[in-house]
Amino acid sequence: MRSSQANPEAVHLKGASLTPLKRLELYISAIFKLGRIERIAKSARAQGTQLSEQLAQQNNRIEAQTAQTKLLAEQSAKAAQALARDEVRELAVRHAELARNYVDMSRRLDKLLVSICREPQAAKEYPKARPDPSELSNALLDSFYRRLESKVGRTRDEVKSQQRFFLPDAESAYLRCAKRPLLDLGCGRGEWLDLMHEDQMQAIGVDIDSLQVSDLEARGRNVHRQDALTFLQAQSDASFSCITSFHLIEYLSFADVFAIVGEAMRTLAPGGLLVFETLNVANFAEVGPSLFSNLTNNQPLSESVLTALFETYGFDPIEMHQLHPSKLLEEFLRRPDFDPDLAMILFAPRDLAIFGTKPLGED
Length: 363
Known about the structure:
Blueprint: H1 8-16, H2 20-118, H3 133-152, H4 156-163, H5 167-176, E1 182-185, H6 191-198, E2 203-207, H7 210-218, E3 223-225, H8 228-233, E4 240-246, H9 254-267, E5 268-279, H10 284-293, H11 303-312, E6 318-323, H12 328-334, H13 340-347, E7 351-357
Parallel strand pairs: 1-2, 1-4, 2-3, 4-5
Antiparallel strand pairs: 5-7, 6-7
Helix pairs in contact: 2-3, 4-6, 12-13
């Protein structure tokens, strides 16, 4: 057998047998093959470079779009902030303008009152007439309390909204007592009288503030400038279906409150209703500032005192309601680490309302 391995000597002899022309042909063929390989490699390098440039351009476009999007977002945020600032500034300007108008109107009203009180009478008719100092003092005092109420009190809309709570009981008493008039003691700005008017119920208001009485009369309300007790004492028995008093009794002495409850029992028709709303003494955070802000406040009456007072005159049944709690009360009562008694002191309902019904057997 022949060996499977090539004979080196035979190969050498075969290469040695190539002619120069054949070798040249082989060299040229190798050169062409090498050139083709170089062209392919060059083309591949060019394509790679082109792809890299395209990727770089794509990245640049993406970065430019991202920067543009970020810029637009920043511009939108700045525009929104500027718009919000403009709106807040406009509201502040409007508020300041309204405040200036209110102050200006109040000053004009004060000057008008002073000029009316100081205006001399005709010499022929009243040669010795002089303005009554007490009238001047009362007019300015009414103006002072009106200003104070606007600073520390509740708004008309807030009061009116809160007083709707009392409407169902007042309407029931009005129908139960053959539509006898309702009486509001210390009617103030007349929020409750407005509700009665809207509900088409006959209502009478009583207040000692001359400015507020004049304002209510101009609005067509039936109102009397007189203190509550004096007015009640002049009324006939069983005259009213419902007597209300919102934040009046804390301004009166206990003797006057005691007498008002007695007169209310007399002047209410059988089945009539007496309602007092006052400060809730359980809320020390609310009662303290109110006592020091309202200069005519006396000692507020607690739930037990009012209940005993209504029981003394025979009102039955008697209901007690704690009204208008702080929004924070429930939150702090749910906290396990917060003392519930402290929560009640800080956030207890700010107002206390007592309802007393005159028994049907009473005359």
